[in-house]
């Protein structure tokens, strides 16, 4: 039986390329996103897999690798050349990235970080200005992959996907950003198989993507109160990111469309109607993570090998 924390809310998602209302020539304009642009393909990085945005929407942070090794990078949200925030040891294979609600720290999920004498990595914390990454206490050995930071009762907490250090069961955990003796399981075990990304509403609804869901190529689950529900099948890309608009009216999910190219699926949380958009990003096939700035509807999205030249790219999506 899964272990489930308190949650409230509704959402639904379909894998169809168009919404229930039949599509249009400009699906972006019908949804919460009106602009999509690549903000960087330049700089010493490759294989960008997840991206997030500073709370005010001014800076994009992303995980990738470089000549200095794997790590986390930054670029102005208006575009520019990417710079290293922190790279090399102790990073091993960083995937998910999130920023704290005060904008001071980056949180990086790295299942291969090997600096503390045990397998399974940790969630690493690093100042946005750079510095030595340190593990968030209680996350060591839990094979973290996707994560998000939220504020609950005036305290930042991080929700992250991973695996139990004892029995290896897939799970979503939460832990204070400052650490704890052990993280609390939000959901553990069935129906999760290979959880990817996670998003959380202000009232506690947890959305988690799972690329190994039985009966399909992936799924989006909703954790509400004492129950967990499979609300949609998805076709997972390299990293099936999930986030919400600031008003929480729409859920956005990084997926693949019917032709195997990247798209972002939209779901109206009130009506359960769905749509998708692929402008600009539809030329890509190796989509990654998706996050929203804490205070504004500015989103960041990453692709490992974008466009005809196959150079990794990071995008900003704006309302």
Q: Topology, pairings included?
A:
Layout: H1 27-30, E1 35-40, E2 46-53, E3 59-66, E4 69-76, E5 83-87, E6 94-99, E7 105-110, E8 122-127, E9 134-135, E10 147-152, E11 155-163, E12 170-176, E13 184-188, E14 195-200, E15 206-210, E16 219-224, E17 227-233, E18 242-244, E19 250-256, E20 262-268, E21 274-277, E22 287-292, E23 298-306, E24 311-318
How would you characterize this protein structure?
- The protein contains one helix and 24 strands.
- The protein has 319 residues and is an all-beta fold.
- The strands form six sheets. It has a four-stranded antiparallel sheet with strand order 1-24-23-22, with no helix packed on it. It has a four-stranded antiparallel sheet with strand order 2-3-4-5, with no helix packed on it.
- The radius of gyration is 18 Å and the shape is globular.
Q: How would you name the oligomeric state of the polypeptide chains in this document?
A: single chain
Please give the alpha-carbon distance between the first and last residues: 40 Å
Strand content: over 45%
Sketch the major β-sheet: 4 strands, antiparallel
The percent range for helix content is under 10%
Extended strand count: 24
Please tell me how large the radius of gyration is: 18 Å
Low-confidence stretches: 1-30
Q: Spell the H/E element sequence.
A: HEEEEEEEEEEEEEEEEEEEEEEEE
User: Going across the major beta sheet, what is the strand order?
Assistant: 1-24-23-22
Q: Characterize the overall form.
A: globular
Mean pLDDT: 87
Structural class by helix and strand composition: mainly beta
